[in-house]
């Protein structure tokens, strides 16, 4: 009997560490054991979260290096309607993924990227009120909402393999600011209208497919900031080329209220990681004035 108890305890203990290792491999579909009450403690379970190339960071213009002669960032296939779109409350965020028939998965290339990066999912980060929420900040300022479009490098063959390389992922980050014009904020409702169906953690819903270009900024040219960083959630792998749009998109107060009704694990009321040390990293500012949306620009180029 005693032996049985000891064996069971050992197996339970062992099982927990195996689950953790498997969870890492399955990211982002697996459930990760972390919360936003104390992001500083992530490093105890996920030591990479304490390394030197972490995200998010403050995008401080003092450290910008301006790039004027780079090839444009190209968006290919984002006009195409996928076979299906799934909206998922994974317990940490609202996530959208889609299924495009094999040769026509949308991808980005150009700008700071060498090769093609395939779209896999997009998700959001927000806070308790409109004064906080974005993960990256620009010259110390937060936005109420930041959207991440996650892409992986085609030549690595799979998302999980790409995670293991310093240039494996390219994430486009879009900032949102409050705008009460119902017409301007309407595109976001293609996603937010389904929040009610996935209010509880782990709920998914299939929705009527639409092309991602319904969001105004997707597929357009804009100036952006780029630096080498990491996933902003455990295990914080340092495999991300960040591309952060200088074009700020609109979201309404009522849309933010709706998003905050999503029930996250640990009763988290926010899901943004605080800014991390920049260390000696450069932030490249890509000036793309060709076809730039003529809307408000934040952190204008100096000089
Ligand atoms: C999406 O469509 C593909 C191909 O038609 C199918 O294999 C897949 O199961 C679908 N996914 C969902 C979640 O419906």
UniProtKB/TrEMBL annotation:
Pfam families hit by this protein: Carb_anhydrase
Domain Alpha-carbonic anhydrase: 32-287
Signal peptide: 1-21
Gene3D superfamilies documented for this protein: Alpha carbonic anhydrase
Enzyme class at the top of the EC tree: lyase
One Gene Ontology molecular-function label: carbonate dehydratase activity
Keyword presence, Metal-binding: yes
CDD domains: alpha_CA
EC numbers on record: 4.2.1.1
UniProt KW keywords: Lyase, Metal-binding, Signal, Zinc
Catalysis performed (reactions): hydrogencarbonate + H(+) = CO2 + H2O
Family annotation (InterPro entries): CA_dom, CA_dom_sf, Carbonic_anhydrase_a-class
Highest taxon above the source species: Eukaryota
Family: Belongs to the alpha-carbonic anhydrase family.
Protein known as: carbonic anhydrase
Gene name as annotated: ca2_2
């Amino acid at each position: 009997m005693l032996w049985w108890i000891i064996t069971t305890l050992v197996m339970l203990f062992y099982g927990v560490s195996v689950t953790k290792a498997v969870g890492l491999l399955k990211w982002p579909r697996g459930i990760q054991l972390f919360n936003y009450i104390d992001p500083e403690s992530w490093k105890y379970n996920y030591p990479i979260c304490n390394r030197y190339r972490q995200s998010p960071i403050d995008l401080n213009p003092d450290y910008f290096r301006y790039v004027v002669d780079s090839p444009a960032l190209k968006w290919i296939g984002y006009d195409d309607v996928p076979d299906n779109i799934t909206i998922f409350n994974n317990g940490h965020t609202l996530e959208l993924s889609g299924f495009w028939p094999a040769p026509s998965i949308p991808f980005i290339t150009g700008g700071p990227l060498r090769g093609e990066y395939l779209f896999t999912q997009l998700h959001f980060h927000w806070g308790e009120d409109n004064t906080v929420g974005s993960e990256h900040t620009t010259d110390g300022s937060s936005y109420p909402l930041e959207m991440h479009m996650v892409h992986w490098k085609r030549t690595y063959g799979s998302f999980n393999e790409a995670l293991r390389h310093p240039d494996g992922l390219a994430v486009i980050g879009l900032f949102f600011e409050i705008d009460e014009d119902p017409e301007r904020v309407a595109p976001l409702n293609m996603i937010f209208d389904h929040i009610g169906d996935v209010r509880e953690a782990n709920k998914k819903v299939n929705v009527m497919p639409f092309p991602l270009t319904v969001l105004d900024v997707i597929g357009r040219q804009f100036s952006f900031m780029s630096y080498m960083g990491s996933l902003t959630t455990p295990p914080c792998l340092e495999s991300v080329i960040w591309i952060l749009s200088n074009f700020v998109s609109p979201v309404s107060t009522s849309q933010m209220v709706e998003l905050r009704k999503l029930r996250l694990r640990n009763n988290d009321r926010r899901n943004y990681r605080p800014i991390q040390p920049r260390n000696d990293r450069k932030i490249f500012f890509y000036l793309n004035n060709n076809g730039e949306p003529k809307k408000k620009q934040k952190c204008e180029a100096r000089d």
